[in-house]
Write a structure and sequence with these properties.
Length: 73
């Protein structure tokens, strides 16, 4: 990939990535909750994915709005 992008385009792409990560985190949390009663292994896999997207979300939050998000317990 050799495209050159300006800072505004880079910022737009990061905001889209953040929105995508937030949606995926919600999707996997919902799936985890749905699978918990019937498929414990599937629920664990969904939890892992939810945590991974949550980590991406926290990193993008810090890049886009430094210091704004408080640390979770």
């Amino acid at each position: 990939m050799t495209d050159v992008v300006d800072s505004d385009e880079l910022l737009r792409r990061m905001h889209r990535a953040r929105a995508c990560a937030a949606q995926e985190e919600r999707t996997w949390r919902t799936r985890r909750d749905e699978l918990r009663p019937t498929d414990p292994e599937g629920a664990r896999e969904a939890e892992v994915r939810s945590v991974a997207y949550g980590a991406v979300l926290r990193v993008l939050d810090e890049v886009l709005t430094p210091g704004r998000r408080t640390e979770r317990g």
